[in-house]
Amino acid sequence: MNKRVPLTGNDAGAEALKDVNPDVAAVFPITPQTELMHQFASYVHDGVVDTELILVESEHSAQSACFGAASAGARTVTATSSQGLLLMAEICAITAATRLPVVMPVVNRAISAPVNIGCDHSDSMFLRDAGWIQLYCENSQEVYDTVVQAFRIGEHKDVLLPVMVCLDGFIISHTMEGVELIGPEAARQFVGEYDAAFRLLDTAKPITVGPLHLTDYYFECKRQVVEAMATARRVIVEVGKEYGRLTGREYALFEPYRLDDAEVAIIALGSTCGTAKVAADRAREKGLRAGVLKLRSFRPFPGEEIAEALRHVGAVAVLDRSISYGLPGGPLFHEVRSFANGGAVLVSYVYGLGGRDITPSDLQCVFAELAARRQSGESDGVFRYIGLRES
Amino acid sequence: MSELLGWKDMPIGGIIFESGSSQRYVTGGWRTYKPVHAQDRCVHCLRCWILCPDSAVLVENGRLVGFDYDHCKGCGICARECPAKCRAIEMELDR
Amino acid sequence: MAINLKEMSARPELLVGGHRSCAGCAAPAILRQALHVAGPDTVVGFATGCMEVSTTIYPYTAWRVPYIHCAFENCAATVSGVEAAYRVLQRKGRIPADKKINFIAFGGDGASYDIGFQSLSGAMERGHRMLYVCYDNNAYMNTGTQRSSATPRGAMTNTSPNGSIISGKQQSRKDLTACVLAHNIPYVAQASVSNPIDFMRKVARALEIDGPSFINILQPCHRGWGCKPEDSIELARLAVETRWWPLYEVDHGRWKVNNKPKTVVPVVDWFRIQARFKHMVAGDRDGILAWHQEQVDKAWTELLEKEEKSQ
User: Fold this and answer.
1) How many C-beta atoms lie closer than 10 Å to residue A357's C-beta?
2) Nearest residue in chain C measured CA to CA from A213
3) Element (H or E) spanning C215, and its range?
4) Pairing mode of beta strands A133-136, A297-299
5) Residues of A with CB below 8 A from C95's CB?
6) Which of A358, C142, C198, C298 has the fewest CB atoms found within 10 Å of its own CB?
7) Do C118 and A61 lie within an 8 Å CB cutoff?
8) ipTM associated with this complex
9) pLDDT tens digits, one per residue of A17-73
10) A/C interface, count of CB pairs below 8 Å
11) Contact B21 C60 (CB under 8 A)
12) Pick the CATH number of A254-386 from 3.40.50.920, 1.10.10.350, 3.40.640.10, 3.40.50.720
């Protein structure tokens, strides 16, 4: 019988790490990730897990220690937010290209300046091309489930990539909700014994990790990561199905919500998808066939599948909780648009930067706007902001 | 570039799995002068051996027996550091 | 541990030839010496730098021990992770309980005094069982000789040239050995590539310690210092004999000066044979030569006092 307990997103992340019992965790505090590491540190100090906890002096060193530990053959985790993620960015790219399946909850928070601790996705989007798998969560339950699955996905022998499990700062990380846990026994059985692809600590077979590649070999290493990401698309689905058989909660690359007959739809990441579902229900009550595509896997990006799922939808709003200066719209919008096959009107909405709230009524307005555009076929002015003072 | 491995055949992560593979890379061609050993003057203190940056001083049974000319870059540290009382290594123009 | 070169020479080389460091660069000799002491059950971590670049040009590696490089500024943090993994994997029975592995992190002065200073400090403070060896060649040599906080005052580098207004580096060097000592770790030492037996004994002592240890070893760069390749070792020897670079160790609070030169060689004799000080030797317009001699004399007296007091 699975336990259902009230947990914040941070607690759920810590609980999942506890249930998996990784070998090494290297962490540095940053708001709003702190409670996750507090909770996990208490598990270490109470002997609930036998993880080696390295309390480093910066996020840069956190990711560096993860690089070392994972190369040594240890199942390795860290967690961070915002500036912390940007500080470790250099090493994140190295972890990925060295094919080390580190798992890292990222509690999404705006990046400076101005300094701000509220939620947006600018931090993880900054690292979209770092070679990490990025999975976004809608709620605490998904945080728990996704952290457990992340080990299986990243460690798959044809993937071997690190995984960010992204959860919205405060909105998920600090909000209590009921979460069903599978417990340590089932979680450890699900992830299995860690069998590293290479082990630095095997002194009988010395390897050289991190050599210099000149023009003759570097390019090929990059191509290998492209292939691993392509394989991850299949593995995320396989692992999500297997997890579904275990728990009744199946996961995929994205989740369609009332999309089958939708005339208008919203595509978004994270907790906003929950808000969008409420807005879609309300729109339908008023006779507008609205749907939501909740994107779970931003890297790898399932472009063809998204295009297929939205093929019949007349107008689509792509919601970005991050911004790209000098190119109107956010990263999600541009990636969705690059796979669009002509039919639907696509509108970019940038919203919620620095933790600015987004409500069901905001998104009902979006649906209404989409309906109008669908009628008129108008595709001008497709770059919009929600909740921004324009004066 | 056809003799180089393609991405499907290369080991992952840029890692080198063959330890000591640099031995196949010859640096002897960098040399202008080469060390020559005078066995009769040598006291086999092995200072040249422990200071050689290129692991190119050959020692057998605790005695200097010659040089690995495939890897010796001809830097002259061995000759320079050979104790003044013996001067058992001299640098000669190579080729 | 008595260092016996004859015995050592019978064991396999753990850093082989075919690497591409400059001819006459003595830094690889330091690595060989450390590995001859440490043996094959050793993991080497490297910060980005000359030795990292020249020993691991894919698909060639000069290393016959496990080797890990991540980036420039994080060698100590990277090795922290490796060492933590070793501890937990041994606890979980995945590494035999009696299998001891040494962990040695190497970095140049750029990586240790400057960009990786924080990472080094963190690793020392956390108490990882790790020997950190800084091979100090007094500047950023891998990128073509730029000043670092290890560059001596007055020295010319490509970012502190001998200009018509400003002559050489204006600031005095950081004393990294003292900085690391301030972490209250069990063992800290200074060594020189001119004294391999002393260095190897220090490595052996450091590896006995169940905790962090640090050795700062002077390693002249003939390209950056401006001398003949074969004179690298001689330059290091003169640095010791002038007392500019004293050899000492602090073992659990006990100071020991390992080399007390019998005749005092003036610092200018060491400066004279290096192009980086040529402008100072030719005409010491800022009085830097005299300042160096004063500093050296003062530091030497203090060092002897510390040794005496700590007995």
Assistant:
1) 12
2) C58
3) strand C213-218
4) antiparallel
5) 201
6) C298
7) yes
8) 0.97
9) 999 999 999 999 999 999 999 999 999 999 999 999 999 999 999 999 999 999 999
10) 166
11) yes
12) 3.40.50.920
